[in-house]
Specification:
Blueprint (H helix, E strand, L loop, with lengths): L13 H10 L6 H18 L3 E4 L2 E2 L2 E2 L4 E8 L4 E6 L4 E5 L2 H21 L6 H11 L4 H12 L1 H7 L1
Antiparallel strand pairs: 1-4, 2-3, 4-5, 5-6
Helix pairs in contact: 3-5
Length: 158
């Protein structure tokens, strides 16, 4: 007995339709493009690591020990999201370099908050700094931050 292929009608938005049309190559049909996208999503899901280790550094900032991150991928916006919830560090981007740059910006913020600010830290901030201290040498990070931002650091400390 042969399987009978059933056709179904699906309603999509004009934006999705235009995106599918823009992805067509050669003699591909509309259905070919959709099937290829579904297969790519399945392959990507199987390839995406569930954790990400930054072994030696985050951008220009060296780490005392490797830091683990949870990894997710938003296929609709094509954005990688890596985060360490315990350390409140989030990096996102379309490429590895963008993700690392985003993580480096997070470290910049922590250096500014913990090493340059005159504000009294909350209990939660003090606890987070202790946790981050296991990974980040804040004195060394301040030197790197100062090299990166130059005169802006002197202005903040004044």
């Amino acid at each position: 007995m042969q399987a009978v292929e059933q056709k179904k009608t699906v309603t999509i938005s004009p934006e999705v339709h235009n995106r599918i049309i823009s992805l067509r190559r050669g003699n591909q049909t509309y259905g070919d493009v959709v099937a290829e996208a579904i297969n790519l999503k399945i392959r990507l899901d199987s390839l995406i690591p569930k954790t990400f280790k930054c072994l030696n550094s985050i951008g220009i900032y060296p780490l005392r020990k490797p830091m683990n991150f949870d990894v997710s991928f938003d296929s609709q916006d094509v954005i990688w999201d890596i985060r360490n919830k315990e350390l409140s560090i989030l990096g996102c981007g379309n490429t590895y370099d963008e993700i690392i740059s985003s993580l480096e910006d997070e470290i910049d913020c922590y250096v500014a908050a913990y090493m340059l600010s005159n504000h009294k830290l909350s209990k939660e901030s003090i606890e987070l700094k202790k946790q981050l201290d296991e990974y980040i040498d804040f004195n060394k990070a301040l030197e790197i931050y100062s090299d990166k931002y130059g005169d802006a650091v002197d202005d903040e400390q004044a």
